[in-house]
């Protein structure tokens, strides 16, 4: 089973700043099967990025994804107040999906 | 529009079997490439993938929970059912179902299941 490790666990930033979230896989992941989700308290996760770098419908262009192999990154170019949430990466491989443990993005 | 709703007991006792139903609308599980999946999230913890069923009735399970899970579908009723046997307090979580059409693009609101005697 592929393990996804996200870092940092918590990221404290101010609105307007740039956020860089990391997701590292224990073995190579197909870029086609790497996704990012945002989750706010009391809500279901929301798909942000699929295929490592494609934005889902309705996602603002300040969100971008990149990476390949075992290292993937979610970047939020300029943080808006509504972006403070928990972010999860997810991969699919060998008939299994796995999620990372999440990065909490909090207001500094 | 696409909607999914989870239903089932809010409280189960240890050793009991949990049965959850995902009722959906706005898409058909007969469509090629369409899937429905179950994911759970213990309070304050990360998401954990549980199972997935596809349009062709192929089923996939979490390796760690495979022996306890069964997923099935009733296409005519637009429902997917997940059963989990031998429930334990560590299984206390919010259980989500989600549509998977390439990616997990629509999610239900989740249902909290507490395991306690």
UniProtKB/TrEMBL annotation, chain A:
The keyword Transmembrane does not apply. Residues 1-90 form the Ig-like domain. It comes from Homo sapiens. GO terms for cellular component: extracellular region; immunoglobulin complex; plasma membrane. InterPro entries: Ig-like_dom, Ig-like_dom_sf, Ig-like_fold, Ig_sub, Ig_V-set, IgV_Light_Chain. This is IGL c2924_light_IGKV3-20_IGKJ2. Transmembrane segments: none annotated. SUPFAM superfamilies: Immunoglobulin (SSF48726). Keywords: Adaptive immunity, Immunity, Immunoglobulin, Immunoglobulin domain.
């Amino acid at each position: 089973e592929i393990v996804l490790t996200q870092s940092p666990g918590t990221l404290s930033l101010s609105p307007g700043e740039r956020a860089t979230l990391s997701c590292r896989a224990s073995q190579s992941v197909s870029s086609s099967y790497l996704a990012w989700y945002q989750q706010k308290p009391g809500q279901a996760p929301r798909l942000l990025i699929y295929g490592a770098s494609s934005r889902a419908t309705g996602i603002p262009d300040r969100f971008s994804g990149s990476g390949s192999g075992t290292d993937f990154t979610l970047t939020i170019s300029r943080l808006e107040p509504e972006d403070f949430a928990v972010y999860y990466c997810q991969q699919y491989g060998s008939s299994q999906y796995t999620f990372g443990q999440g990065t909490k993005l909090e207001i500094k | 529009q696409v909607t999914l709703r989870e239903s089932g007991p809010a409280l189960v006792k240890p050793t009991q079997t949990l049965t959850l139903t995902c009722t959906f609308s706005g898409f058909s599980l007969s469509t090629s490439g369409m899937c429905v999946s179950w994911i759970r999230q213990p309070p304050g913890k990360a998401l954990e993938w549980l199972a997935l069923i596809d349009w062709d009735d192929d089923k996939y399970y979490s390796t760690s929970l495979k022996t306890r899970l069964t997923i099935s579908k009733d296409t005519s009723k637009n429902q997917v059912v997940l059963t989990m046997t031998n429930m334990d307090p560590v299984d206390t979580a919010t259980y989500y179902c989600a549509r998977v059409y390439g990616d997990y693009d629509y999610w239900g609101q989740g249902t909290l299941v507490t395991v306690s005697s």
